Fold this protein.
Amino acid sequence: MSDLLWDDVKCFFDLDLMGSLPDVRVPNASVEDWQSVLDLVAEKGWECQYSEGKSVLPVPRAEAVLSRPANAQCPELRVWPTADVLAVFRFDADDEVDFDVDLRELQGQARLDVLRGFLREIGRRLGKPVLMDPEGDSGHPVLGFDVEADRVVVLAEPLVR
């Protein structure tokens, strides 16, 4: 049985309340944490695509990506933990692993379980919380991986319209 039930958290997947692309982040991260995420993607065999602008390239080491010139375009890593769920990582800063998920892909219990498993895998690997904030509202997480509880938990009161 799932730690989270769709009926209890579906308000956090409402496009009008959360935006379609909520922000998921691991605060207080490091270059080593970024590399751990890249290693996890490879170990799990998740389909992925790394790009810089329109160029699709092999996935580099995190240190190389995060040491690019300040005026360089922000690279992204697209990761599919399942064929129909996409997470887009952006290498904006070395002190926060951040990525977006598309709530249109995360409707219902089965998809919630995919997201929950994905956040749990990242949180366990890094030993850090993984927090989901409404789109553009960083610092107000609604769901997240709790390291001590070793599961994804609700972090906010249910949202209402």
